[in-house]
Design a protein that fits this description.
A five-stranded antiparallel sheet has the order 1-3-4-5-2, covered by helices on one side. By secondary structure, the chain is mostly beta strands. The radius of gyration is 16 Å and the shape is elongated. It has one helix at 32-51, and strands at residues 15-18, 55-65, 74-84, 88-99, 106-119.
């Protein structure tokens, strides 16, 4: 599983979105699946950039829900490549909710994930991940 960090990662998130009423369960909390789908998108963006092409999700190695996400939260998904294999990449995703309301906004870590992607070619078969990309992603 990913390392827990107490503060938001530096840099821009891969994905940032607003939690809406249509994304809630019967109790008014945001569905865990909604958070998982956005984490997969954020992870795949990072994996695509590092692999230099198409990737597919092959495993969710871990997903920890730390705090609930509420309607109106602005959720940011920070992703980073943890390791690169021959055809696969392991990516971690840290998720933070910006709680808006009276007073200053608060940012709270709400979840973390570890996801494995495989780089594929046009034939949809595994393809080697380049050893190093020019921009060191």
């Amino acid at each position: 599983m990913t390392k827990r960090i107490s503060r938001k990662p530096a840099g821009d998130p891969a994905v940032r979105t607003l939690a809406m009423p249509r994304d809630t369960n019967g109790l008014g909390d945001i569905f865990g699946g909604w958070l998982m789908s956005h984490a997969d998108i954020a992870g795949s963006i990072r994996a695509y950039r590092r692999a230099g092409g198409k990737v597919v999700t092959v495993a969710v190695n871990g997903f920890n829900f730390l705090k609930p996400v509420y309607v109106g939260d602005v959720v940011s998904f920070f992703s980073r490549v943890e390791s690169v294999g021959t055809t696969s990449l392991k990516v971690s995703v840290d998720m933070y909710a910006e709680r808006l309301g009276p007073g200053p906004a608060r940012e709270i870590k709400v979840a973390e994930a570890a996801i494995t992607y495989v780089h594929i070619g046009d034939d949809r078969r595994p393809k080697p991940v380049p050893k190093q990309m020019p921009d060191n992603r």
